[in-house]
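In the current project phase, our protein records have gained a structure token line. A sample record follows, to show the layout:
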Amino acid sequence: MDRHSSDEDDDRQTLIHQNDTKHRPRQIPTSPRASTAPRSGFHIEELESQIRRRFKLTFNKRYLFAIFLPLLLIPIFLSTGIRSLFSSNISSLKFNKVSDQLKESQLQALYLLNQQLTSLLSLWNHTFVNSNDNVSAVQFDDIKASLLNQITLNKHIQQTLLSPHKTGNTLQNATVLDPAYAGYSFDRCRKVDLKFSERRTIKWKPKPNKFLFAICLSGQMSNHLICLEKHMFFAAVLNRALVIPSSKFDYQYNRVLDTEHINDCVGKKAVIPFEDFMEMKKNQAHIDRFICYFSSPQPCYVDEEHLKKLRSLGISMGKLESAWKNEDIKKPSQKTIKDLEEKFASDDDVIAIGDVFFAEMERDWVTQPGGPIAHKCKTLIEPSKLILLTAQRFIQTFLGSNFIALHFRRHGFLKFWYLLHFVIPILPERALLNKWVLAIAILVKAWVSLYGLMLLRAGNAKKPSCFYPIPQAADCITRMVERANTPIIYLSTDAAESETGLLQSMIVLNGKTIPLVKRPPRNSAEKWDALLYRHGIEDDPQVEAMLDKTICAMASVFIGAPGSTFTEDILRLRKDWGTASLCDEYLCQGEGPNFIAGEE
């Protein structure tokens, strides 16, 4: 306590003394006693005054110091301290961002690894589980392509895992396998080498005034084109010019075919339109011999109604005769060129042999790329120049060079597939009878074909159903899209919008919907079909069908409808034009529908 008081007194004296010496002249006392009392009273009053002045001065300095100190610290703080202050927070944010990216890339890599595992297991099962099957069932190209897909997928996984460590355009301390540089490039759906130059051919050298009158009545346009092609082979074997039927008796061929193209390719006047032929004969032509290729179900497969139509066109004829007594369209026998020459060779000017759509002769020769006749073109029977150009313009507008074409036939396949295989082949075609007679005939023949229907329902391997449920068809198409690596599909179909809409929604690969493109309705703003309108053939159903065929024939890959001659004619064009692919196949080839409805 005393020490504390003593310290305060000393401090106060020191302050007073310092202040006094600073502000007053120093006085020397005369004697110690005399100076002690008066200075004591004076110093008390003076001390209070000095304390007040000292406090005021001290308060002002502290106040100013408190105001100016932050102002002095702010620029120093901004220039030196802010980075160190927030450095830890920024580092934390950066770390969190990298961590999130790493987690995301790892999850994506796990998903891709799962896809790779599924594909490898599928390949394993397909190759080894069915090891007892024929080895040819597993194509070497398919194995190579599957393995290449896995190599590519593995590369993608590596890039995904390493993406957080990417600096600029390079990966730090990483080497990713690139199949393109490692010699793994492989075109799974490459074009087929059909060795066009090695084909076996016959020269078509028509003799003067010797004609073969073509008659084609089976089915629709595609059947008729196949029939015409076979007639051309007959004409070449027999050294005759071929007369194209009248549009009053058959289709209007000049709208879809260019007959002069055929003549230019052959280098001879080998094909003659009906009108030119009648002009040569002064509108009164006579078929000197009517030699029927088929004798059953009726001679020449021509009914009396069409014979009357021929007569009404100014064509007269003698009695129909059969080349073979038991040649039936249901079971046509294989014929050779020698057989044809023996039965149909004649010195008569004009002959006819009836419908030959079902004829089987020199199959390997007739069906080879480019056909059996020597010529300088890719094929003799092809779409007209107008249709060809229109198809090219459509592809340039909507599809591009890499697309799949799908012929998705639905009309009539659900209820009458068995009729297509069991009933129709033993019936006169719709062109031979009127629709009511044909309807009655179909009902009668359906009972006759009941045994065939029973085989079909029991799982007949020869004639399976080809009407696939939409989900199953979508799965087959998606597999082909993945296999062919194409971004878009051209759809040629007679299916309803309800079916095509569902099909579109289900064709999805790697989370991306693959668009289905159909020919749109006429739009004056679009110019791809201007040529058809300019020549007045835009609404002809046969022109539209041929346009569809042409687009499909130019596709990278084609998926056809089994049992359809429309598909078969597309395959012929692709083969002749050299556009056929190793991946071309029928829809869901090798598998039947996973559900088949019962019959009425």
Q: What stands out?
A: Confidence is low (pLDDT under 50) at residues 1-42, 128-138, 169-184, 415-463. The first helix runs from residue 2 to 23.
